[in-house]
Amino acid sequence: MKMSRREILAGGCALAVQARAGDVSAQQRLVMNDASRLNPTPLFRHFYVRSDEADFVAALRRELKEAAAVRRSVALGAARHSMGGQSLIRNGVAMTFDIDQCELDRTARIYRVHAGTRWHQVIAHLDPAGFSPAVMQSNSDFGVGATFSVNAHGWPTPYGPFGSTVRSIRLMLADGTILTCSRNANAELFALAMGGYGLVGVILDLEVEMTDNMLLQPRFEAMPAGEFAKRFIAASHDPAVPMIYGRLNVERERFFSEALLVSWRKEPTPAGGLPPPARKGALTGLSRQVYRAQVGREWGKSLRWHVERSIAPMLANGTASRNRLMNEPALNLANRDQRRVDILHEYFVSPDRFNEFLEGCRRIIPKAIAEFLNVTLRHVKRDPTSMLSFATTDRIAAVMSFSQRIDADGETDMIKVTEALIDLVGSIGGSFYLPYRLHARPDQFARIYPDAQRFSQRKRHYDPGLLFQNTMWNTYFNF
Protein backbone atom coordinates (compact mmCIF):
# COMPACT_ATOMS: atom_id res chain seq x y z
CA MET A 1 0.00 0.00 0.00
CA LYS A 2 1.37 3.38 -0.98
CA MET A 3 1.35 6.11 1.63
CA SER A 4 1.42 9.86 1.27
CA ARG A 5 4.34 11.86 2.68
CA ARG A 6 2.02 13.25 5.37
CA GLU A 7 0.98 9.71 6.38
CA ILE A 8 4.59 8.62 6.55
CA LEU A 9 5.50 11.59 8.74
CA ALA A 10 2.49 11.06 10.95
CA GLY A 11 3.37 7.40 11.30
CA GLY A 12 6.90 8.32 12.26
CA CYS A 13 5.52 10.68 14.91
CA ALA A 14 3.31 7.93 16.32
CA LEU A 15 6.24 5.57 16.60
CA ALA A 16 8.28 8.26 18.33
CA VAL A 17 5.53 8.82 20.89
CA GLN A 18 5.23 5.07 21.50
CA ALA A 19 8.99 4.72 21.87
CA ARG A 20 8.99 7.36 24.60
CA ALA A 21 6.26 5.46 26.43
CA GLY A 22 8.20 2.21 26.16
CA ASP A 23 5.59 0.47 23.97
CA VAL A 24 7.99 -0.38 21.14
CA SER A 25 10.49 -3.18 21.57
CA ALA A 26 14.20 -2.59 21.05
CA GLN A 27 14.09 -4.72 17.90
CA GLN A 28 11.76 -2.35 16.06
CA ARG A 29 13.46 0.38 14.04
CA LEU A 30 12.16 3.69 12.82
CA VAL A 31 13.50 4.27 9.31
CA MET A 32 13.09 7.41 7.20
CA ASN A 33 14.22 8.31 3.69
CA ASP A 34 14.46 11.38 1.50
CA ALA A 35 13.27 12.16 -2.03
CA SER A 36 15.98 10.03 -3.64
CA ARG A 37 14.57 6.86 -2.04
CA LEU A 38 18.23 5.81 -1.85
CA ASN A 39 19.00 6.83 1.74
CA PRO A 40 16.98 4.69 4.17
CA THR A 41 18.23 5.85 7.56
CA PRO A 42 17.48 4.21 10.93
CA LEU A 43 16.57 6.79 13.57
CA PHE A 44 16.28 6.87 17.32
CA ARG A 45 13.27 9.18 17.16
CA HIS A 46 11.22 11.34 14.80
CA PHE A 47 10.32 14.56 16.61
CA TYR A 48 7.28 15.73 14.65
CA VAL A 49 5.59 18.88 15.97
CA ARG A 50 2.21 20.41 15.26
CA SER A 51 1.33 22.75 18.11
CA ASP A 52 1.08 26.38 19.16
CA GLU A 53 4.17 28.56 19.52
CA ALA A 54 4.61 28.31 23.29
CA ASP A 55 4.33 24.51 23.37
CA PHE A 56 6.62 24.22 20.37
CA VAL A 57 9.47 26.17 21.97
CA ALA A 58 9.21 24.35 25.29
CA ALA A 59 9.03 20.93 23.64
CA LEU A 60 11.96 21.77 21.38
CA ARG A 61 14.14 22.84 24.29
CA ARG A 62 13.39 19.59 26.13
CA GLU A 63 14.21 17.52 23.05
CA LEU A 64 17.53 19.28 22.47
CA LYS A 65 18.49 18.95 26.12
CA GLU A 66 17.71 15.21 26.14
CA ALA A 67 19.66 14.63 22.93
CA ALA A 68 22.68 16.64 24.13
CA ALA A 69 22.75 14.78 27.45
CA VAL A 70 23.34 11.44 25.72
CA ARG A 71 25.34 12.91 22.77
CA ARG A 72 22.64 12.00 20.28
CA SER A 73 22.72 14.00 17.04
CA VAL A 74 19.78 16.00 15.67
CA ALA A 75 18.94 16.55 11.98
CA LEU A 76 16.36 19.08 10.79
CA GLY A 77 13.97 18.74 7.84
CA ALA A 78 10.54 19.49 6.42
CA ALA A 79 9.39 17.76 3.23
CA ARG A 80 12.82 16.07 2.94
CA HIS A 81 13.11 16.87 -0.74
CA SER A 82 16.90 16.71 -0.41
CA MET A 83 18.54 13.66 -1.94
CA GLY A 84 21.72 12.88 -0.04
CA GLY A 85 20.78 12.63 3.62
CA GLN A 86 21.01 16.39 4.30
CA SER A 87 18.00 16.10 6.65
CA LEU A 88 18.80 12.73 8.22
CA ILE A 89 21.35 11.35 10.68
CA ARG A 90 21.82 7.67 11.53
CA ASN A 91 20.52 6.71 14.98
CA GLY A 92 19.77 10.34 15.74
CA VAL A 93 16.66 12.49 16.08
CA ALA A 94 14.98 13.72 12.90
CA MET A 95 12.96 16.89 13.50
CA THR A 96 9.96 17.91 11.40
CA PHE A 97 7.83 20.99 12.04
CA ASP A 98 4.43 21.43 10.41
CA ILE A 99 2.99 24.60 11.93
CA ASP A 100 0.85 27.02 9.93
CA GLN A 101 1.60 30.49 11.31
CA CYS A 102 1.93 33.60 9.15
CA GLU A 103 1.26 37.26 10.01
CA LEU A 104 1.37 40.14 7.54
CA ASP A 105 2.70 43.65 8.10
CA ARG A 106 1.22 45.51 5.14
CA THR A 107 2.97 48.78 5.96
CA ALA A 108 6.43 47.25 6.12
CA ARG A 109 5.57 44.82 3.29
CA ILE A 110 6.86 41.83 5.24
CA TYR A 111 5.38 38.67 6.69
CA ARG A 112 6.43 36.85 9.84
CA VAL A 113 6.22 33.11 9.37
CA HIS A 114 6.93 29.99 11.39
CA ALA A 115 9.79 27.91 10.02
CA GLY A 116 7.47 24.90 9.68
CA THR A 117 4.88 26.69 7.55
CA ARG A 118 4.62 25.30 4.00
CA TRP A 119 4.76 27.63 1.02
CA HIS A 120 1.22 26.89 -0.13
CA GLN A 121 0.10 27.98 3.34
CA VAL A 122 2.09 31.23 3.00
CA ILE A 123 0.36 31.91 -0.32
CA ALA A 124 -3.01 31.21 1.29
CA HIS A 125 -2.27 33.90 3.88
CA LEU A 126 -0.82 36.48 1.46
CA ASP A 127 -3.16 36.09 -1.51
CA PRO A 128 -6.38 37.51 0.03
CA ALA A 129 -4.45 40.65 1.00
CA GLY A 130 -3.09 41.09 -2.53
CA PHE A 131 0.49 40.06 -1.76
CA SER A 132 2.89 37.36 -2.92
CA PRO A 133 6.24 35.99 -1.66
CA ALA A 134 9.06 37.98 -3.23
CA VAL A 135 11.01 34.72 -3.68
CA MET A 136 10.06 31.19 -2.77
CA GLN A 137 11.23 27.69 -3.52
CA SER A 138 9.75 25.78 -6.41
CA ASN A 139 7.49 23.98 -5.53
CA SER A 140 4.99 24.99 -2.83
CA ASP A 141 5.12 21.80 -0.72
CA PHE A 142 8.25 22.77 1.20
CA GLY A 143 8.83 24.47 4.55
CA VAL A 144 9.92 28.10 4.73
CA GLY A 145 12.68 27.42 7.26
CA ALA A 146 13.99 24.58 5.12
CA THR A 147 14.07 26.88 2.08
CA PHE A 148 16.25 29.31 4.05
CA SER A 149 18.45 26.44 5.24
CA VAL A 150 19.22 25.39 1.65
CA ASN A 151 18.95 29.01 0.43
CA ALA A 152 16.78 27.89 -2.47
CA HIS A 153 15.76 30.17 -5.30
CA GLY A 154 12.77 30.41 -7.58
CA TRP A 155 11.96 32.03 -10.91
CA PRO A 156 10.88 35.54 -9.90
CA THR A 157 13.41 38.08 -11.15
CA PRO A 158 15.52 40.04 -10.42
CA TYR A 159 16.37 38.53 -7.04
CA GLY A 160 19.07 36.50 -5.40
CA PRO A 161 18.22 33.28 -3.54
CA PHE A 162 15.43 33.25 -0.96
CA GLY A 163 17.80 34.43 1.77
CA SER A 164 18.18 37.76 -0.01
CA THR A 165 14.55 38.54 0.91
CA VAL A 166 14.80 37.45 4.57
CA ARG A 167 15.14 40.36 6.99
CA SER A 168 15.75 38.35 10.15
CA ILE A 169 15.33 34.96 11.80
CA ARG A 170 14.94 33.69 15.34
CA LEU A 171 17.40 30.88 15.94
CA MET A 172 17.57 28.40 18.84
CA LEU A 173 21.12 27.27 19.55
CA ALA A 174 22.10 23.88 20.93
CA ASP A 175 21.86 25.10 24.56
CA GLY A 176 18.31 26.41 24.06
CA THR A 177 19.29 30.07 23.75
CA ILE A 178 17.12 32.00 21.28
CA LEU A 179 18.76 34.79 19.27
CA THR A 180 17.39 37.18 16.67
CA CYS A 181 19.79 37.15 13.73
CA SER A 182 19.97 39.51 10.77
CA ARG A 183 22.54 41.30 8.64
CA ASN A 184 22.99 43.76 11.52
CA ALA A 185 22.48 41.63 14.64
CA ASN A 186 24.31 38.32 15.15
CA ALA A 187 25.33 38.68 11.51
CA GLU A 188 27.72 35.73 11.52
CA LEU A 189 24.99 33.36 12.70
CA PHE A 190 22.66 34.77 10.05
CA ALA A 191 25.28 34.02 7.37
CA LEU A 192 25.88 30.53 8.76
CA ALA A 193 22.19 29.66 8.96
CA MET A 194 21.42 30.95 5.45
CA GLY A 195 22.23 27.92 3.33
CA GLY A 196 23.63 26.20 6.44
CA TYR A 197 21.47 23.05 6.26
CA GLY A 198 20.35 23.29 9.89
CA LEU A 199 23.87 22.76 11.21
CA VAL A 200 24.11 25.74 13.58
CA GLY A 201 20.68 25.78 15.21
CA VAL A 202 16.92 25.49 14.82
CA ILE A 203 15.20 28.27 12.91
CA LEU A 204 11.99 29.15 14.75
CA ASP A 205 10.55 31.84 12.52
CA LEU A 206 11.50 34.34 9.84
CA GLU A 207 10.69 37.91 8.82
CA VAL A 208 10.47 37.97 5.02
CA GLU A 209 9.80 40.49 2.26
CA MET A 210 6.65 40.25 0.19
CA THR A 211 5.59 41.93 -3.03
CA ASP A 212 2.36 42.63 -4.88
CA ASN A 213 0.43 39.79 -6.43
CA MET A 214 -0.30 40.58 -10.08
CA LEU A 215 -1.73 39.25 -13.31
CA LEU A 216 0.88 37.95 -15.78
CA GLN A 217 0.84 37.06 -19.47
CA PRO A 218 3.37 34.58 -20.93
CA ARG A 219 5.55 35.17 -23.96
CA PHE A 220 7.28 32.17 -25.60
CA GLU A 221 10.42 32.67 -27.71
CA ALA A 222 12.31 29.81 -29.39
CA MET A 223 15.93 30.34 -30.42
CA PRO A 224 19.27 28.59 -30.98
CA ALA A 225 20.76 27.63 -27.63
CA GLY A 226 23.84 29.77 -28.28
CA GLU A 227 21.70 32.92 -28.24
CA PHE A 228 19.89 32.11 -25.03
CA ALA A 229 22.16 33.60 -22.36
CA LYS A 230 22.31 37.08 -23.89
CA ARG A 231 18.56 37.29 -24.49
CA PHE A 232 17.71 35.70 -21.14
CA ILE A 233 19.78 38.17 -19.13
CA ALA A 234 18.38 41.12 -21.09
CA ALA A 235 14.83 39.97 -20.36
CA SER A 236 15.59 39.27 -16.70
CA HIS A 237 16.61 42.92 -16.23
CA ASP A 238 13.46 44.23 -17.92
CA PRO A 239 11.22 45.85 -15.25
CA ALA A 240 8.19 44.64 -17.21
CA VAL A 241 9.26 40.97 -16.67
CA PRO A 242 8.82 39.90 -13.01
CA MET A 243 9.04 36.14 -13.73
CA ILE A 244 11.11 34.24 -16.28
CA TYR A 245 12.54 30.83 -17.08
CA GLY A 246 14.12 28.91 -19.95
CA ARG A 247 14.25 25.36 -21.28
CA LEU A 248 16.53 23.38 -23.62
CA ASN A 249 15.80 20.40 -25.87
CA VAL A 250 17.07 17.05 -24.57
CA GLU A 251 17.07 14.59 -27.50
CA ARG A 252 20.49 12.93 -27.58
CA GLU A 253 21.24 13.66 -31.27
CA ARG A 254 20.35 17.35 -31.01
CA PHE A 255 21.11 17.79 -27.34
CA PHE A 256 20.99 21.38 -26.05
CA SER A 257 20.82 22.82 -29.58
CA GLU A 258 17.58 24.78 -29.08
CA ALA A 259 16.27 26.97 -26.30
CA LEU A 260 12.91 28.30 -25.20
CA LEU A 261 12.63 31.56 -23.28
CA VAL A 262 9.38 32.07 -21.35
CA SER A 263 8.85 35.51 -19.86
CA TRP A 264 5.81 36.61 -17.89
CA ARG A 265 4.73 40.24 -18.23
CA LYS A 266 2.39 42.27 -16.06
CA GLU A 267 -1.20 42.83 -17.21
CA PRO A 268 -3.87 45.15 -15.74
CA THR A 269 -5.83 43.63 -12.87
CA PRO A 270 -9.37 42.77 -14.05
CA ALA A 271 -12.38 44.40 -12.46
CA GLY A 272 -13.33 41.16 -10.72
CA GLY A 273 -9.90 40.82 -9.13
CA LEU A 274 -7.19 38.20 -9.55
CA PRO A 275 -8.03 34.50 -9.91
CA PRO A 276 -7.40 32.28 -6.87
CA PRO A 277 -4.06 30.44 -6.59
CA ALA A 278 -5.32 26.89 -7.16
CA ARG A 279 -2.78 24.07 -6.74
CA LYS A 280 -3.18 21.97 -9.87
CA GLY A 281 -1.80 21.52 -13.36
CA ALA A 282 1.69 21.97 -14.79
CA LEU A 283 2.97 25.43 -15.53
CA THR A 284 3.25 24.98 -19.29
CA GLY A 285 0.20 22.78 -19.69
CA LEU A 286 2.53 19.90 -20.49
CA SER A 287 0.89 16.67 -19.33
CA ARG A 288 2.52 14.20 -17.01
CA GLN A 289 2.04 11.47 -19.62
CA VAL A 290 4.08 13.33 -22.23
CA TYR A 291 6.78 14.13 -19.70
CA ARG A 292 7.12 10.54 -18.49
CA ALA A 293 7.11 9.21 -22.08
CA GLN A 294 10.70 10.51 -22.37
CA VAL A 295 12.09 7.65 -20.26
CA GLY A 296 13.74 5.19 -22.65
CA ARG A 297 12.18 6.79 -25.73
CA GLU A 298 13.96 9.32 -27.89
CA TRP A 299 10.71 9.92 -29.74
CA GLY A 300 9.19 10.85 -26.38
CA LYS A 301 11.85 13.53 -25.90
CA SER A 302 11.21 14.89 -29.39
CA LEU A 303 7.47 14.90 -28.75
CA ARG A 304 7.87 16.65 -25.43
CA TRP A 305 10.02 19.40 -27.01
CA HIS A 306 7.54 19.86 -29.86
CA VAL A 307 4.69 20.16 -27.38
CA GLU A 308 6.52 22.63 -25.19
CA ARG A 309 8.06 24.76 -27.94
CA SER A 310 5.23 24.78 -30.51
CA ILE A 311 1.94 23.49 -29.11
CA ALA A 312 1.97 24.76 -25.51
CA PRO A 313 2.22 28.43 -26.56
CA MET A 314 -0.87 28.01 -28.73
CA LEU A 315 -2.78 26.15 -26.01
CA ALA A 316 -1.75 28.44 -23.17
CA ASN A 317 -4.91 29.84 -21.66
CA GLY A 318 -3.43 33.29 -21.30
CA THR A 319 -2.98 35.05 -18.00
CA ALA A 320 -2.31 33.71 -14.53
CA SER A 321 -1.68 35.38 -11.19
CA ARG A 322 1.82 35.46 -9.74
CA ASN A 323 0.63 33.37 -6.78
CA ARG A 324 -0.97 30.82 -9.08
CA LEU A 325 2.27 30.31 -10.97
CA MET A 326 4.22 29.81 -7.74
CA ASN A 327 1.66 27.52 -6.10
CA GLU A 328 2.68 24.34 -7.94
CA PRO A 329 2.84 21.01 -6.08
CA ALA A 330 5.90 18.83 -6.58
CA LEU A 331 3.81 15.81 -7.56
CA ASN A 332 2.67 17.19 -10.95
CA LEU A 333 5.32 15.23 -12.86
CA ALA A 334 6.01 12.58 -10.23
CA ASN A 335 7.68 9.30 -11.12
CA ARG A 336 5.58 6.22 -10.27
CA ASP A 337 8.01 3.57 -11.53
CA GLN A 338 9.47 1.93 -8.43
CA ARG A 339 12.44 0.69 -10.48
CA ARG A 340 13.58 4.23 -11.22
CA VAL A 341 13.95 7.51 -9.36
CA ASP A 342 14.12 11.11 -10.55
CA ILE A 343 17.40 12.70 -9.43
CA LEU A 344 18.01 16.44 -9.48
CA HIS A 345 21.23 18.29 -10.22
CA GLU A 346 21.73 22.04 -10.24
CA TYR A 347 24.58 24.09 -11.60
CA PHE A 348 25.24 27.83 -11.52
CA VAL A 349 27.30 29.53 -14.22
CA SER A 350 28.06 33.11 -15.18
CA PRO A 351 26.12 34.24 -18.27
CA ASP A 352 29.36 34.92 -20.18
CA ARG A 353 30.46 31.28 -19.66
CA PHE A 354 27.07 29.73 -20.37
CA ASN A 355 27.88 28.57 -23.90
CA GLU A 356 30.96 26.77 -22.57
CA PHE A 357 28.67 25.06 -20.09
CA LEU A 358 26.36 23.98 -22.93
CA GLU A 359 29.26 22.57 -24.92
CA GLY A 360 30.54 20.58 -21.93
CA CYS A 361 27.06 19.19 -21.22
CA ARG A 362 26.80 18.04 -24.84
CA ARG A 363 29.96 15.96 -24.32
CA ILE A 364 28.94 14.49 -20.95
CA ILE A 365 25.20 13.96 -20.59
CA PRO A 366 24.18 12.08 -23.79
CA LYS A 367 26.67 9.30 -22.93
CA ALA A 368 24.98 8.59 -19.62
CA ILE A 369 22.86 5.52 -18.91
CA ALA A 370 20.47 7.73 -16.97
CA GLU A 371 17.70 9.36 -18.96
CA PHE A 372 17.95 13.13 -19.03
CA LEU A 373 14.40 14.50 -18.79
CA ASN A 374 14.55 18.24 -18.34
CA VAL A 375 16.52 21.38 -17.61
CA THR A 376 14.93 24.59 -16.38
CA LEU A 377 17.02 27.75 -16.55
CA ARG A 378 16.62 30.55 -14.02
CA HIS A 379 18.25 33.86 -13.18
CA VAL A 380 19.89 34.20 -9.75
CA LYS A 381 21.47 37.43 -8.60
CA ARG A 382 24.64 37.46 -6.52
CA ASP A 383 24.41 36.29 -2.90
CA PRO A 384 26.98 38.18 -0.78
CA THR A 385 25.67 36.98 2.60
CA SER A 386 25.64 33.18 2.93
CA MET A 387 28.95 31.69 4.01
CA LEU A 388 28.26 28.79 1.63
CA SER A 389 27.13 30.98 -1.26
CA PHE A 390 26.61 29.22 -4.59
CA ALA A 391 26.15 32.55 -6.39
CA THR A 392 29.21 34.68 -5.70
CA THR A 393 28.33 36.51 -8.94
CA ASP A 394 25.09 36.81 -10.91
CA ARG A 395 24.38 33.36 -12.35
CA ILE A 396 22.21 31.36 -14.70
CA ALA A 397 20.93 28.35 -12.76
CA ALA A 398 20.45 25.06 -14.64
CA VAL A 399 18.05 22.81 -12.72
CA MET A 400 18.41 19.32 -14.22
CA SER A 401 16.30 16.20 -13.85
CA PHE A 402 17.57 12.68 -14.57
CA SER A 403 15.67 9.40 -14.38
CA GLN A 404 18.03 6.88 -12.77
CA ARG A 405 17.70 3.14 -12.43
CA ILE A 406 17.66 1.96 -8.81
CA ASP A 407 20.49 -0.53 -9.05
CA ALA A 408 24.28 -0.60 -8.75
CA ASP A 409 24.88 0.22 -12.43
CA GLY A 410 22.48 3.15 -12.25
CA GLU A 411 24.20 4.53 -9.16
CA THR A 412 27.70 4.07 -10.62
CA ASP A 413 26.66 5.86 -13.79
CA MET A 414 25.18 8.76 -11.83
CA ILE A 415 28.35 9.21 -9.77
CA LYS A 416 30.46 9.40 -12.94
CA VAL A 417 28.10 11.89 -14.61
CA THR A 418 27.95 14.07 -11.50
CA GLU A 419 31.71 14.19 -11.08
CA ALA A 420 32.17 15.10 -14.74
CA LEU A 421 29.59 17.90 -14.57
CA ILE A 422 31.10 19.33 -11.38
CA ASP A 423 34.55 19.30 -13.01
CA LEU A 424 33.00 21.15 -15.94
CA VAL A 425 31.39 23.93 -13.89
CA GLY A 426 34.46 24.21 -11.70
CA SER A 427 36.63 24.78 -14.78
CA ILE A 428 34.49 27.74 -15.87
CA GLY A 429 34.13 29.38 -12.46
CA GLY A 430 30.67 27.98 -11.69
CA SER A 431 29.24 26.04 -8.77
CA PHE A 432 26.90 23.18 -7.94
CA TYR A 433 24.00 23.02 -5.50
CA LEU A 434 24.42 21.05 -2.28
CA PRO A 435 20.93 19.61 -1.50
CA TYR A 436 21.23 16.72 -3.93
CA ARG A 437 23.22 13.46 -4.04
CA LEU A 438 26.55 13.61 -2.21
CA HIS A 439 28.51 12.48 -5.24
CA ALA A 440 31.00 15.36 -5.41
CA ARG A 441 34.54 14.35 -4.54
CA PRO A 442 35.99 16.11 -1.47
CA ASP A 443 38.46 17.98 -3.67
CA GLN A 444 35.62 19.22 -5.89
CA PHE A 445 33.65 20.36 -2.88
CA ALA A 446 36.64 22.18 -1.37
CA ARG A 447 37.44 23.91 -4.66
CA ILE A 448 33.94 25.22 -5.32
CA TYR A 449 33.11 26.00 -1.67
CA PRO A 450 36.40 27.46 -0.38
CA ASP A 451 34.75 28.80 2.81
CA ALA A 452 33.67 25.31 3.90
CA GLN A 453 36.50 25.01 6.41
CA ARG A 454 35.63 28.37 7.97
CA PHE A 455 31.98 27.26 8.09
CA SER A 456 33.03 24.09 9.93
CA GLN A 457 35.13 26.03 12.43
CA ARG A 458 32.39 28.57 13.21
CA LYS A 459 29.75 25.82 13.46
CA ARG A 460 31.92 24.15 16.11
CA HIS A 461 32.16 27.47 17.94
CA TYR A 462 28.37 27.80 18.23
CA ASP A 463 27.71 24.05 18.57
CA PRO A 464 30.78 22.65 20.38
CA GLY A 465 29.00 19.39 21.20
CA LEU A 466 28.14 18.86 17.52
CA LEU A 467 24.49 18.37 18.39
CA PHE A 468 23.30 19.34 14.91
CA GLN A 469 24.53 16.91 12.28
CA ASN A 470 23.41 15.26 9.06
CA THR A 471 24.90 12.99 6.43
CA MET A 472 26.28 15.94 4.46
CA TRP A 473 28.14 17.22 7.53
CA ASN A 474 29.85 13.88 7.99
CA THR A 475 30.69 13.66 4.29
CA TYR A 476 32.20 17.10 3.68
CA PHE A 477 32.55 19.20 6.83
CA ASN A 478 33.64 16.97 9.70
CA PHE A 479 37.33 17.73 9.22
> What gyration radius follows from the Cα positions, in whole Å?
22 Å
Q: What is the end-to-end distance?
A: 42 Å
Mean pLDDT: 90
> How does the overall form come out from the CA principal axes?
globular
Adjacency order of strands in the biggest sheet = 15-12-14-13-17-18-16-19
Provide the CATH architecture of the domain at 218-266 and 285-316 and 332-447: 2-Layer Sandwich
Main beta-sheet strand count, sense and barrel state: 8 strands, antiparallel
Unreliable runs: 1-26
Please bin the fraction of helical residues. Answer: 25-40%
SS field, number of helical segments: 14
Percent strand = 15-25%
Helix/strand/pairing class, anyone? alpha+beta
Number of beta strands = 19
Q: In CATH terms, what is the fold-level topology of the domain at 218-266 and 285-316 and 332-447?
A: Alpha-Beta Plaits
The CATH class of the domain at 218-266 and 285-316 and 332-447 is Alpha Beta
Structural descriptors:
479 residues; alpha+beta; Uridine Diphospho-n-acetylenolpyruvylglucosamine Reductase, domain 2; Alpha-Beta Plaits; eight-stranded antiparallel beta sheet; six-stranded antiparallel beta sheet; 14 helices; 19 strands; globular; disordered N terminus
Describe it for me?
By secondary structure, this protein is an alpha+beta fold. Among the domains are: 5-97, Uridine Diphospho-n-acetylenolpyruvylglucosamine Reductase, domain 2 (2-Layer Sandwich); 218-266 and 285-316 and 332-447, Alpha-Beta Plaits. The protein is built from 14 helices and 19 strands. It has helices spanning 5-21, 53-69, 119-126, 144-150, 187-193, 228-236, 288-292, 298-315, 322-326, 354-364, 408-427, 442-448, 452-462, 471-477; strands at residues 30-32, 41-43, 45-49, 74-77, 93-97, 102-105, 110-114, 131-133, 166-172, 178-182, 202-212, 215-224, 243-248, 258-267, 320-321, 340-349, 371-380, 395-405, 431-432. An eight-stranded antiparallel sheet has the order 15-12-14-13-17-18-16-19, sandwiched between helices. Strand 9 and strand 10 form a beta hairpin. Helix 10 (354-364) packs antiparallel against helix 11 (408-427). The longest helix has 20 residues, at 408-427. The two termini are 42 Å apart. The model is unreliable at 1-26 (pLDDT under 50).
